[in-house]
């Protein structure tokens, strides 16, 4: 009997329910149900009661940590022996770290030689800040409306020229991200590269964003030396802009810096100290203002913490030797975002942003558990046939449970899979729902990958006794294993074919996405080598390579230079894998 405890694999939905009741009762939070929903709802309720008994001991819950040196990166897949037959895939390959380490550093001109920032009128500032709010601050809702009002005043008054301080640095970074948001918006509903006029407009906005970012970098020392939520926000926004520039090492460095400052500030929360004297001058003069600002500051830090948790894990998923900041080791003790932080002008936008953020946090926690339980170095169950079927079944249950409780505003369809599970169609899906579908598909492909790896190893075949005990490729494998291999391959192919130019993908995840897609193409290529597995893959695979190449090359052009060498290398691998897949199908007739 399989004895591994499933307690550490408690659903992320269950664990979050004990830490927050935010956004309950809202029409936006209405769950998109399924025939299985009521059964699973009872399971969740039982789990909620069990966890509530120990709610005061949240540190006892296992943290969803993705450890270094896991074996699920694209580079790990490229080292599979199945690609020995395709030597050109590896011949010109350079490790991602070496590629990025050898890049020409981003230079910042001396202050005395800086050109003045572009003059921006009131309507342009409004447009830039609105784009920031609907994009960067929607995905990672860390900035309050009060901060945005102050930023608008700083930019229009030109006071950013007067002194270096965290507030001024934040204003410049917010403008930079607003322009970056304008560059990457409007690409999701077309597979075509923007026309020349659009490219010129986006190039102009990218140039303005770079100018604000460069000016912010000149005063970033104030964020490093200050211990405040605003300084932490500056570090996080710097990471986001480096992600937009497709510079993963620099993005990771600033994510780590922001995470470290979060750990510091969360370790010394005001609640851990004695209450100030009621006769304190600040309390007498501003009794409510001081308290309100402190509460807002603490909520901001917690939101930055969760944003860093998501992004650090995303980078670690592809660069498995990156040092950990330590935030993942305490994530179960940090409250989830509360519904008292005013991030958007319209209440509906604010609530939808918060729900979306919660969905992304929950998915990232599940992805970390998947990578850790199946692919952790030395302890992962991914190649142990006695262990991984049970782990895969539990993780698949948690994945479907995550999808079951998504609010309608974030729900999505996967018609190719839903017909088998009798799911009720969602209907029109928002761009945010389509982005979450991509997360769902990548998680599903990684969950079921152990079956494919087992099949590729040749150890799962039910062989007829031929007197020699050889593993014949012509033998008929176990039907359940084939079914689960197909689950992995379907998810890989759907992950590729459903990719579009989502603003969040292009601005934040172009580098990560290129590697993930190269890995998916390699998995499909490995499967195409074996007739039994090739029969599980639809003919749509022949369109996958061109689809990805067009998107990734188009995003690089739209985002502007210099292009990322590791994205370029991923595109080369995608093209090579596509060529080999086509060769297999041609030879197969």
Give your account of this protein's structure.
With 589 residues, the chain is mainly alpha-helical. It has a domain at 121-271 and 292-333. 61% of the residues lie in helices and 0% in strands. The protein is built from 25 helices and no strands. The chain has helices spanning 12-17, 37-52, 74-78, 88-91, 96-101, 122-134, 136-139, 145-157, 166-184, 196-218, 221-225, 229-244, 248-267, 281-285, 287-318, 347-375, 388-404, 415-421, 431-457, 479-497, 503-508, 510-528, 531-534, 541-559, 565-588. It starts with 11 loop residues before the first helix and ends with a helix. The model is unreliable at 1-27, 33-61, 272-287 and 462-474 (pLDDT under 50). Pfam families: Fungal_trans. Residues 17-40 are annotated as: Disordered. Residues 17-26 have a biased composition (Low complexity). Keywords: Nucleus.
Outline:
This protein is mostly helical and 589 residues long. The chain contains 25 helices and no strands.
Keywords:
single chain; 589 residues; mainly alpha; 25 helices
Q: Helical segment tally? A: 25
Secondary-structure content class? mainly alpha
Order of helices and strands: HHHHHHHHHHHHHHHHHHHHHHHHH
Average predicted local confidence, pLDDT: 84
Radius of gyration, in angstroms, nearest whole number: 25 Å
Largest sheet: none
Query: Fraction of residues in helices?
Result: 55-70%
Q: Got a strand count?
A: 0
Unreliable stretches covering 5 or more consecutive residues:
1-27, 33-61, 272-287, 462-474
Distance between the termini: 46 Å
Report the sheet-strand fraction: under 5%
Shape: globular
Domain Xylanolytic transcriptional activator regulatory: 251-343
Keywords: Nucleus
Region (Disordered): 17-40
GO molecular function, one term: zinc ion binding
């Amino acid at each position: 009997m399989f004895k591994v405890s499933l307690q550490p694999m408690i659903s992320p939905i269950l664990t979050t329910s004990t830490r927050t009741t935010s956004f309950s009762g809202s029409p936006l939070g209405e769950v998109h149900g399924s025939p299985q929903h009521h059964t699973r709802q009872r399971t969740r309720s039982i789990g909620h009661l069990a966890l509530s008994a120990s709610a005061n001991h949240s540190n006892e819950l296992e943290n969803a940590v993705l450890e270094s040196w896991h074996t699920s990166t694209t580079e790990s897949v490229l080292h599979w022996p199945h690609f020995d037959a395709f030597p050109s895939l590896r011949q010109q390959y350079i490790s991602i770290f070496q590629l990025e380490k050898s890049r020409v550093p981003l230079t910042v001109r001396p202050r005395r030689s800086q050109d003045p920032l572009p003059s921006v009128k009131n309507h342009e500032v409004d447009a830039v800040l609105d784009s920031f709010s609907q994009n960067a601050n929607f995905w990672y809702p860390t900035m309050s409306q009060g901060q945005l009002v102050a930023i608008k005043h700083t930019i229009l008054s030109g006071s950013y020229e007067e002194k270096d301080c965290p507030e001024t640095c934040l204003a410049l970074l917010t403008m930079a991200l607003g322009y970056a948001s304008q560059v990457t918006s409007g690409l999701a509903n077309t597979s075509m590269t923007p026309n020349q006029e659009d490219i010129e407009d986006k190039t102009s906005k990218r140039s303005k964003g770079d100018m604000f970012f460069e000016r912010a970098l000149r005063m970033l020392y104030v964020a490093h030396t200050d211990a405040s939520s605003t300084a932490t926000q500056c570090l996080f926004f710097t990471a986001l802009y480096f992600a937009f520039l497709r510079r993963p090492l620099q993005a990771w460095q600033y994510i780590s810096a922001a995470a470290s400052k979060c750990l510091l500030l969360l370790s010394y929360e005001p609640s851990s100290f004695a209450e100030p004297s009621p006769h304190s001058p600040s309390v007498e003069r501003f009794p409510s203002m001081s308290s309100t600002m402190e509460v807002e500051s603490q909520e901001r830090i917690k939101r930055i913490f969760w944003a860093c948790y998501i992004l650090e894990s995303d980078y670690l998923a592809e660069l498995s030797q990156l040092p950990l900041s330590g935030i993942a080791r305490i994530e179960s003790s940090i409250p989830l975002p509360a519904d008292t932080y005013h991030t958007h002008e319209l209440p509906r936008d604010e609530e939808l942003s918060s729900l979306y953020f919660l969905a992304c946090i929950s998915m990232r926690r599940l992805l970390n558990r998947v990578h850790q339980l199946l692919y952790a170095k030395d302890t992962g169950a991914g190649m142990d046939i006695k262990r991984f079927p049970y782990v895969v079944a539990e993780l698949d249950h948690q994945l479907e449970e995550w999808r079951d409780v998504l609010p309608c505003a974030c729900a999505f369809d996967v018609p190719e899979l839903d017909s088998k599970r009798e799911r009720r169609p969602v209907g029109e899906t928002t761009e945010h729902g389509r982005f979450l579908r991509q997360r769902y598909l990548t998680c599903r492909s990684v969950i079921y990958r152990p079956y494919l790896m087992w099949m590729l190893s040749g150890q799962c075949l039910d062989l007829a006794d031929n007197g020699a005990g050889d593993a014949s490729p012509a033998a008929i494998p176990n039907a359940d294993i084939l079914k689960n291999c197909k689950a992995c391959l379907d998810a890989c192919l759907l992950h590729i074919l459903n990719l579009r130019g989502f603003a969040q993908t292009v601005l934040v995840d172009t580098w990560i996405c290129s590697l993930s897609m190269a890995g998916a193409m390699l998995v499909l290529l490995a499967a195409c080598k074996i007739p039994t597995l090739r029969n599980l893959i639809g003919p749509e695979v022949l369109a996958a390579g061109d689809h990805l190449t067009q998107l990734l090359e188009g995003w690089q052009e739209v985002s502007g230079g210099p292009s990322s060498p590791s994205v370029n290398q991923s595109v080369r691998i995608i093209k090579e894998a596509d060529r080999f897949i086509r060769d297999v199908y041609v030879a197969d007739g």
